[in-house]
């Protein structure tokens, strides 16, 4: 998988700078996690990387490039806090939604692949169910299968596990860590523990205009166990920093 390079990313709304000349490299096969207070500009940075449009009054710039020199924008998958499943489609049809939207023929291989992915997220029995019949955690697992079905090298995640209970969140973290191990990932989270469990590096976006701090590099391989002493110490340290920032 390629690295993703973000150079001189700048964004302002109505001439108010949100961030200016941000630079960040997302290493291949790694999770880069991004913490930061509400409104600091995390989701906007993700939008800029994905090449999504900003509303009226926004000025966005930046070089988003890949180490393999191929264009980035159409090779990005997005996973959000809301599962964004279409309620009128079955689980399997939601997993193959990308093919449908692009009007690609749904070959036997593709359908088999979708079933295989549902098996990997533990939902093979629910292929014909509808989203309303699933729990929040199950729905987010379908969203994960759909992300994997798209098979994009770059995965941008905006608080993907924020809407589920603590135990389901831990399970989803473990599953995503395993299934997305070979991608280049940027994940936004408000949960320092989640960043420390999953991230190879953990950045903090802070200030106005926002800047990135030096990254933390949690030890050991992800997903890290909750009884990892270094992880718990770093967790306390980050929470304290966030608390000071909040006053
Ligand atoms: N369309 C818009 N017009 C004007 N300002 C905007 C617009 N969209 C976002 N902003 C402002 O840009 C800033 C960054 O927003 P963004 O959604 O990126 O923050 P965030 O760090 O992701 O916040 P959260 O953690 O709450 O999701 C915020 O101060 C927000 O008010």
UniProtKB/TrEMBL annotation:
Q: Which family does it belong to?
A: Belongs to the ABC transporter superfamily.
The entry's protein name is: ABC transporter ATP-binding protein
Annotated GO molecular function terms are: ATP binding
All copies of the ABC transporter domain together span: 4-232
Q: Which PROSITE patterns match?
A: ABC_TRANSPORTER_1, ABC_TRANSPORTER_2
The taxonomy runs:
Bacteria, Pseudomonadati, Pseudomonadota, Gammaproteobacteria, Oceanospirillales
The UniProt keyword set, sorted, is:
ATP-binding, Nucleotide-binding, Transport
- Gene3D superfamilies annotated for this entry? P-loop containing nucleotide triphosphate hydrolases
Q: Which organism is it from?
A: Kistimonas scapharcae
Q: Which InterPro entries match?
A: AAA+_ATPase, ABC_transporter-like_ATP-bd, ABC_transporter-like_CS, ABC_transporter_ATP-bind, P-loop_NTPase
